Amino acid sequence: MGRVIYQVYPRSFADSNGDGVGDIPGITAKLDHLAWLGIDTVWTSPTFPSPNVDWGYDVADYRDVHPELGTLADLDQLIAEASSRRIETWLDLVPNHTSDRHPWFTDRPEYYVWSDTIPNDWQSVFTMDTAWEHDARRKRYYLHQFAVEQPDLDWWNLDVRREFEEILRFWWDRGVTGFRIDVAHALIKDRELRDGVEYLRDRPEVHKIYKRWQEIASEYDPKPTLMGETYVPLDHLLAYYANLDLAQNFDFVRSELDIDELRPIVEKTLEKLPPGRSALWFGSNHDHARLATRWGGGDERKARAALFLILTLPGTAILYQGDEIALEDGDVPADRILDVADPPRDPERTPMPWTRGGDEWKRPWLPLGSTARNVEEQSADPGSTLHYVRDLIARRKLFSDDSYETLKSAKGVWAYRRGDATCVLNLTGKTAAHGGLMLEPWQGLILST
Ligand code: GLC
Ligand code: CA
Questions:
Q1: Average pLDDT over all residues of the chain
Q2: Residues involved in catalysis
Q3: Which tens digits make up the pLDDT trace of 140-166?
Q4: Which residue's CA lies nearest to atom 7 of ligand 1?
Q5: Ligand 1, pocket-test mutation among 287, 320, 339, most atoms within 8 A of CB
Q6: pTM higher than 0.85
Q7: Which pLDDT value is given to residue 264?
Q8: What is the three-state SS of the chain?
């Protein structure tokens, strides 16, 4: 059965020194809890030095740790202590762009994408305005798909490729066993810079980059995992599986919690997945409203239904920190908004409530939301969502294989065979029947393992 990956958003996970910013020693301190939950892998959002225009996704040095988050020694310790609990540590690599404060932007301008004039209609994801910025130093325009302070690298330049190959080795040599690859679908742009978003992202040449990365990964034992943030429609997603071990499925995330939307996506994904590859399911991350809000609307039963699906479908599952307690988005007043994007992503990035009192967060960088759902109380309550998730993780390990078959069921009920077990999920707000069983609204059941 595929692994359970736990995404940590480090600034908001656990603060070890009371400065209001979560940090790497904070993650290490919570490893016993994560091991208890049963996860296999911790993936942390970027931990590299960053001016934090885009909160770590603007990297100034790919070989170090941002001082607020700790030191390289702290990261080594996290890797070692996680590994002693049989938990892997994955980092978040940002190869599409750097920070404009990365020394390359000054010393190696040829690493970036330039043009004498604004050459096309490409737009920045954040500003929705032209993705080209005039640079007074070079008297030319550079490309930035995201913020102005995030210049895009030129992946036609073989030196850029060599730099990243060394960066991969740097971390794999240190015991990191996987990467989530930020903006994995968009590293390489049309060489002629033609008009149209189809020339900016999802270019066929990108796959060759990952082919090479897999060759390097194969030199390691066990082979590190490559997981792409692949913002492409499902029809294109499967192509990424040629060279990535895992490709994030955004059609799934962006659906309603509705059987008629989700089931066809799941069936199509599983049908088209290349042999030997693992599907990947998740419902929240640091860019999307948390599933307990977006799918649950606050109703914990709906959050559990979504978690049931993510954890019982064949393949790999990602839990975003807080999903396991059905944590909802935080309320972030206008004067506390820190994100560059509009609408801001701060509500899904608020601190993790470990206790009802919330004293573990002193003047946190983003406001602590409701602590009504918190780890301490749910740990002590066998009927809590936290225990529900822990039980599902334990039970998924008993599925005999990765097979899946849709079974006949009543409207709104999703029934599927998983090896020698059957999963039944009522995705409606009414009681429903299945094979002589009564299911409560939003209830999921695993039968006969
Ligand atoms: C990815 C990250 C997001 C970031 C963007 C630019 O989509 O998940 O948080 O803003 O890339 O790096
Ligand atoms: Ca701290």
A1: 97
A2: 182, 229
A3: 999 999 999 999 999 999 999 999 999
A4: 183
A5: 287
A6: yes
A7: 98
A8: CCCEEEEECHHHCCCCCCCCCCCHHHHHHCHHHHHHHCCCEEEECCCCCCCCCCCCCCCCCCCCCCHHHCCHHHHHHHHHHHHHCCCEEEEEECCCECCCCCHHHHHCHHHECEECCCCCCCECCCCCCECEEEECCCCEEEECCCCCCCCEECCCCHHHHHHHHHHHHHHHHCCCCEEEECCCCCCCCCCCCCCCHHHCCCCCCHHHHHHHHHHHHCCCCCCCEEEECCCCCHHHHHHHCCCCCEECCHHHHCCCCCHHHHHHHHHHHHHHCCCCCCCEEECCECCECCHHHHCCCCCHHHHHHHHHHHHHCCCEEEEECCHHHCCCCCCCCHHHCCCCCCCCCHHHHCCCCCCCCCCCCCCCCCCCCCCCCCHHHHHCCCCCHHHHHHHHHHHHCCCCCCCCEEECCCCCEEEEEECCEEEEEECCCCCEEECCEEECCCCEEEECC
